[in-house]
Design brief:
- The chain is an all-beta fold.
- It folds into 3 domains: 292 residues, Glycosyl hydrolase domain, family 43 (Tachylectin-2, Chain A); 134 residues, Immunoglobulin-like, CATH 2.60.40; 119 residues, Immunoglobulin-like (Sandwich).
- The protein is built from 1 helix and 41 strands.
- A hairpin with a 2-residue loop joins strand 11 and strand 12.
- The longest helix is centred in the middle third of the chain and has 5 residues.
Length: 583
């Protein structure tokens, strides 16, 4: 499967318009009928005016939410905001912590004496890390907003917090910067070893609220990107899945959505993905403060609402109604011979098909060489009786899409196509008319939990190593007479000639070095037999980089790791991969 530089599309399966650089996702949201799921407290209480700004994480099977609560305090120009905590087993039914709030405003005269607001929380290495907005008054230059900054706190349990002594850790920019007047609404993720923050700000020369970006190695010292990354937006929430950054943020029209490969250059979806409720509802005036979490194969969004109807606001939840229930992926032996089948649920309506000329399906993942983009025409033959059914074979490539608008069930199949680099999680996007539905498919859905996605799809794309069966280890009756055999799959990003290379096998803390010149090449296979290694033992090995398979056998050796979890690795040329195996 050689990497290609062009997008796929044959005959009637032509690409329509501009090829998207990123697949839009999680656009199709359904509000929970029992909203709001969290309301302001009874009067008098610390949260009797309003609650907002939820942030939710999943921790040991429990949904944990931190949120802002407001109450009137005489002498302050705005309601005093503090941060509370709640838990849930399903994301819909919540229990507030009895001793709320868990984070209070600062004492008079401090940078946060006007309130603490807008929490964002991650858990890293057993420690809860919280960033929040602090505000103090009086407001500068007669403006309505107080002086703001973003502070940091940490906790062992998510309830008892220790504020960083030198807060705030992020403040407004220097005079003339786009955010020289106000910073607020931070969201933070950990991406590798880097903490990444997106936040709302505005300035004297940039009066419209926009979203900026900063990064940090410790969560305390932050380096700002010089310009906004999203214009005209606020209250961002960012998650990263499948190598793609996904942002939901607030605007005047509702909650918007954008995607990015690097977290800096964003591609916006044109329409709001969550809008105000119907007239007279609890959220018919404002929907804002999104908090999004991937939950199994679906997404949940918690958000703040304000409305003209009872209970006149609170925190609600919505779910992404697009769902991929089954996915089968097979790797072919030659180029353009792969296959993918996806069965799922979506909510496109009859009007979406009546108003459109085609259905477009996009399959993508982090390492995929080129997204698979297929377009299916809509005509009277393909769409009738509220059902769509189109199948065609052209130049050995077969494509099929079926959908029932009454049941919401769809079937997508593409056979004899190029899926080079496809891995988990993979993303499927379906667009028809005004409907856009996208879901991510994880390893528990792709080929089931036992049969993993074919590693052969990574050939010439990525270095990968997988042990497909439990290694076989036999202890000898005499010293240095143990034997070990390991079989699995392997792919190389770059080609390598093992006949002139040293190959190192790692087993736990031991290494077995096969010297240069030990391998012979025949029929796409590199083989060495009964090679004595300097570490002690005799090694035989076979690598087939076309079938992506390997077999390693070690005998007459003193194997040290004989039980539990063992690290197994292979290194040669630029390839150096390892996996953990169970004995």
């Amino acid at each position: 499967m050689n990497p290609k530089k062009s997008y796929l599309g044959i005959g009637l399966f032509l690409l329509i318009g501009v090829i998207p650089s990123i697949s839009f996702a999680q656009i199709d949201w359904l509000k929970y009928s029992g909203n709001p799921i969290l309301q302001a407290g009874e009067h008098p209480s610390w949260e009797d005016e309003e609650i907002r700004c939820p942030i939710v994480i999943m921790d040991a099977g429990v949904y944990k939410m931190w949120y802002s609560g407001q109450t009137y305090v005489a002498g302050l120009p705005e309601d005093l905001s503090r941060i509370g905590y709640a838990t849930s087993t399903d994301g819909f039914n919540w229990t507030k912590f009895a001793l709320n709030p868990v984070l209070d405003a600062g004492v008079p005269g401090t940078w946060e004496d006007g309130g603490v607001d807008d929490p964002t929380v991650i858990k890293d290495d057993g420690i809860y890390m919280l960033w929040y907005t602090g505000v103090s008054f009086p407001a500068p230059l007669g403006t309505e907003e107080g002086v703001t900054g973003i502070g940091y706190a940490f906790s062992d349990d998510g309830i008892s917090w220790t504020k960083y002594s030198e807060n705030p850790v992020l403040g407004p920019g220097l005079l003339g910067c786009w955010d020289d007047q106000y910073v607020d609404d931070a969201t933070v993720i950990k991406d590798g070893d880097v903490l990444k923050m997106w936040y709302m700000g505005f300035g004297s020369n940039h009066p419209d609220s926009s979203i900026g970006y900063a990064n940090s190695s410790d969560g305390i010292t932050w380096e700002k990107y010089p310009t906004p990354v999203i214009e005209n937006g606020s209250e961002p929430i960012v998650i990263k899945k499948g190598g793609i950054y996904r942002m939901w943020y607030a605007s005047e029209t509702g909650i918007q959505y954008a995607m990015s490969w690097d977290g800096i250059v964003w591609e916006k979806y044109a329409l709001p993905v969550l809008t105000k409720g119907e007239s007279g509802s609890w959220d018919d005036e404002v929907v804002t403060d999104p908090a999004v979490l991937k939950d199994d194969s679906t997404y949940k969004m918690w958000y703040a609402g304000e409305g003209s109807g009872p209970p006149y606001g609170g925190i609600g939840v919505a779910t992404s109604s697009f769902l991929a229930k089954k996915c089968l992926v097979k790797a072919g032996k030659t180029d353009n011979s792969d296959m993918i089948l996806i069965l799922g649920q979506m909510s496109a309506a009859v009007d979406d098909f009546n108003d459109a000329n085609y259905v477009q399906v996009i399959i993508d993942s982090n390492d995929m060489v080129n997204p698979l983009i297929l377009t299916f025409p809509i005509n009277d033959k393909a769409f009738k009786n509220d059902k769509y059914n189109y199948a065609r074979t052209e130049n050995t490539s077969k494509r099929l899409f079926k959908y029932d608008t009454k049941t919401g069930k769809f079937t997508f199949m593409a056979k004899n196509v190029d899926l080079s680099g496809l891995g988990c999680p993979l993303t499927i996007e379906i667009m028809v008319g005004n409907y856009v539905g996208v879901g991510e498919v994880d390893e528990d859905v792709v080929n089931g939990p036992i049969r993993l996605i074919p590693i052969q799809l990574m050939r010439e794309v990525k270095d990968t190593l997988r042990v497909d069966k439990n290694p076989k280890l036999t202890s000898g009756k005499k010293p240095s007479t143990d034997s070990l055999s390991v079989m699995g799959t392997i792919t190389l990003k770059n080609t390598c000639n093992l006949t002139v290379e040293v190959v190192t096998i790692t087993w736990g803390t031991q290494t077995f070095t096969i010297p240069e010149g030990s391998f012979k090449f025949k029929k796409n296979t590199f083989t060495c037999k009964n090679v004595k290694v300097v570490e002690g033992g005799i090694v035989s090995a076979k690598f087939d980089f076309v079938k992506c398979s390997f077999t390693i056998a070690i005998k007459k050796a003193a194997i040290q790791s004989k039980s539990g979890t063992v690290n197994f690795g292979i290194a040669f040329c630029s390839f150096n991969e390892s996996v953990e195996v169970e004995l």
